[in-house]
Amino acid sequence: MENPLFLLLLLISILHWNSFASLINEKSYFKINSSSIKQARKAFMSFDISKLQDPPMPSYSFSVYHIDVFEKSKFNDYESMLTHRLAQDHARATYLASKLKYRDTKIKKDPDFQEKYARNLSKNHDQDLKVAPTNYFNGHYVALLLLGSERTRNYLLIDSGSYLVWWQCAPCVPNKCFKPRYNTIYDSTTSKTFTGLDCVENSSICISTDHDFRCALGSKRCFYTQQYITGETTKGFMASDVITFPSDNTQSRIKFGCSIDQKGGTDFSGTFSGILGLSKRVSLTATGGYSLPSQLGSSIFALCLPTAASVHPSFLSFNKAPWIYGTEAKLLKNRLTPHWYYVNLFKIVINDKVVPVDPSWWNGQKETHGVMIDTGTLITRFPHDYYIIFRDVFREEVKDYTMIEGGYGIFDTCYEDDPDGAEVYFPIIKFYFGNYSERQEVLLVDGRVVVSIGGYYCLAFMPWDDKSTLIGTNQLQGIGLTFDTKNNALTFSVDACD
Fold first, then answer.
1. Beta partners for residue 235, in sequence order
2. Are 160 and 278 in contact (CB under 8 A)?
3. Rounded Cα distance, 287 and 130, in Å
4. Measured in whole angstroms, how far is the alpha carbon of residue 270 from the centre of its chain?
5. φ, ψ dihedrals at 64, nearest 5°
6. What is the pLDDT of residue 135?
7. Residue 180 has what pLDDT?
8. Which of 108-112, 247-251, 326-330, 419-423 has the highest mean pLDDT?
9. What are phi and psi of 194, to 5 degrees?
10. What H or E segment, with its residue span, contains residue 119?
11. DSSP letter for each residue of 224-282
12. How far are the Cα atoms of 32, 116, 336 from residue 41, in angstroms, in the given order?
């Protein structure tokens, strides 16, 4: 005969689990397991990158890789690499917030400054503002391009906020090009399709209002300098050559920055050879933009971001949407930063609880507010006051787990992992774009919600000192993004990339 006490305890255990399972089902929790995360990270760190293969791709496409695939050899383990990335991300957010705060302070002190600032941008639309808006680059994905007639393989860092496409370009100033680890330096003298650009004959090649660009009357070249806050400087001149799409061997001619003089810093590591600018074209009446979508005349481009510990490449494609499903957000205009991709985020829901916010506060047309998609940001940033509300709702929805005091690292909301490696449950987060309906919903689960670090699970969102919101790549990993600038739409296709 069974022990009655044992049966009673078993019954209580079953009832408790059924109650919790019902709660999970009712309120949409997801489960996460540190053992599987550790296995995936271990496999990632041990992967032989010589075995990388291009993914199946549509026409007009490049392969896209997470930059950590190439840089993991610099670190002892995945944890130290992640800690480094988070520190980089925090420094970038701090810098960007200071730049925006300076602009907003000027607007506050001078009521006419905002109008003058926007009018100055408008005045330069036909010159296309061809440089990045801030002197800080940081990114998490690279695209493989084939350059010139020799089809030289080069990885370029993807930057959705930059206008300029540039790469290292031989012949370099002696000892001024960094040695690539995985690329061959493009040589303009061996490319039969290379063409210099005459800025005297065609003044639109140079940006007369930007002191970083100048037209040299003697050589007739448009020289530029790009300085970055992390210590890097690149100098060169504007030129033209063909690029080849590996997917179907189609070629297109583009203008690019031929960078012949690099000053090193922490980010010129040799993993990538330059920047692939994907920013929005500022004016439909402009004669041409220097961002790649503008130069290709493509109003549609799609970017699939591999998950953080994935060795599988994805792709960047142009001219056609590769996915037939997704949630559509509207791209909004912002006069002060017209090159960035603002979206109409409406509400955020954690389980069944709406995080309270005035929808107009997230309106991208309210010049100093809005929600931006930014490939240079890792962890999504909310304005400080909103983040506190968001964080507190999340904490209320986490059941049966004790939050550690003081947080961990840069994160303030962290929970201990189960010591036996059992599954842990956290609430699903839902973003709604435009309105509060299921068809306008983007579900965030797993690593898009919490980061596994230091033996803890930490809420993967951060506050920052600005009124705008940055949606970063940690929340976008594994999601297909289709940008349609003609129809002012951005479609999120969840789990399309892995």
1. 225, 261
2. yes
3. 12
4. 20
5. -125, 135
6. 44
7. 83
8. 326-330
9. -70, 140
10. helix 113-123
11. EEEE-TTS-EEEEEEEEEEEEETTTTEEEEEEEEEEEEEE--SS-SSS--EEEE-PPPS
12. 14, 50, 41
Place of tokens 């296709």: 493
Of 257, 260, 300, the closest CA to residue 278 belongs to 300
Residues 328-343, mean pLDDT to the nearest whole number: 88
- On the CB side of 12, CA atoms within 13 Å amount to 6
Angle at which helices 78-109 and 113-123 cross, to 10°: 110
- The predicted model gives 285-314 an average pLDDT of 83
**Mean residue pLDDT across the chain:** 84
Residue 37 has pLDDT above 60, yes or no: yes
Q: What is the pLDDT of residue 112?
A: 56
Tokens of 438: 């299921």
| Amino acid identity, position 219 | S
Q: Give the mean model confidence (pLDDT) for residues 230-238.
A: 85
**Residues 336, 339, 342: CA angle, nearest 5 degrees:** 80
Would you put residue 407 in left (φ > 0), alpha (ψ -120 to 50) or beta? left
Question: Cα separation of 411 and 89, whole Å?
Answer: 13
Structure-block tokens of residue 161:
């906020």
| Cβ neighbourhood burial of 438 (10 Å; 0-12, 13-18, 19+) | exposed
Helix (H, G, I), strand (E, B) or coil at 182: coil
For residues 431 and 437, give the distance between their C-alpha atoms in angstroms, rounded to a whole number: 10
Name residue, tokens 């690593």.
447
Beta bridge partners of 372: 342, 470
Q: Which residues contact 40 (CB under 8 A, 6 or more apart)?
A: 309
Segment (H or E) for 414: strand 414-416
Total-model pTM: 0.86
Cis previous bond, 313, omega within 30: no
Judged by DSSP in three states, 315 sits in: strand
Q: Is the pLDDT of residue 133 over 50?
A: no
pLDDT at 22 over 80: no
